[in-house]
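Archive entry. Fields below.
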Amino acid sequence: EVKLVESGGGLVQPGRSLKLSCAASGFSFNDYWMGWVRQAPGKGLEWIGEINQDSSTINYTPSLKDKFTISRDNAQNTLYLQMSKLGSEDTAIYYCAREGWYLSAYVMDAWGQGASVTVSS
Amino acid sequence: DIVLTQSPALAVSLEQRATISCKTSQNVDNYGISYMHWYQQKPGQQPKLLIYEGSNLASGIPARFSGSGSGTDFTLTIDPVEADDIATYYCQQSKDYPYTFGAGTKLELK
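PREDICTED_STRUCTURE:
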């Protein structure tokens, strides 16, 4: 069974940093692109970025590129999201997702249950 | 960025057909492939992949779900609607970076 479990969320003060982890199991982690998506309270989904199998290619949504860093440790089957200079607008549930290759595109075919991040003083 | 536009909500009766639309600000087709995908999200749960590349049913998804369209106009159809289908549905494009989602269509019961 494919399983993605996020951790590291919580309450953080504005301007501080936080690092989320996503532990993967049930599939060969180092064969897949992985990504992060967030969802602000009562809002829609926002793509944050993705990382390829050997970390040689990382793509971000431009508005978050200077604040967020995606990385992975294939030996630990773990995906990371380092977030810095956090503001109230970063309050959201953060999902990690596996990107499977389907016919001609990478598609987010498995999702974690999400990690809640609240930015508040 | 490619903007995806969805209607905020759709009211439907059980056992009827639901048609959810997604219009994109730019063509999301390339070499005959539509880089358009659909997800279902129930309250308090993570999104789930329903349809990929415009019209392909993801593994384990019931055949009452179908996707169609090309270019800038896409549709997710649920026929017939069951009670378990009450959720929010998102379209997403992967033609260009950054990947973008529609704002979601909340399927409600009439």
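CURATOR_NOTE: Chain A has a mean pLDDT of 97.
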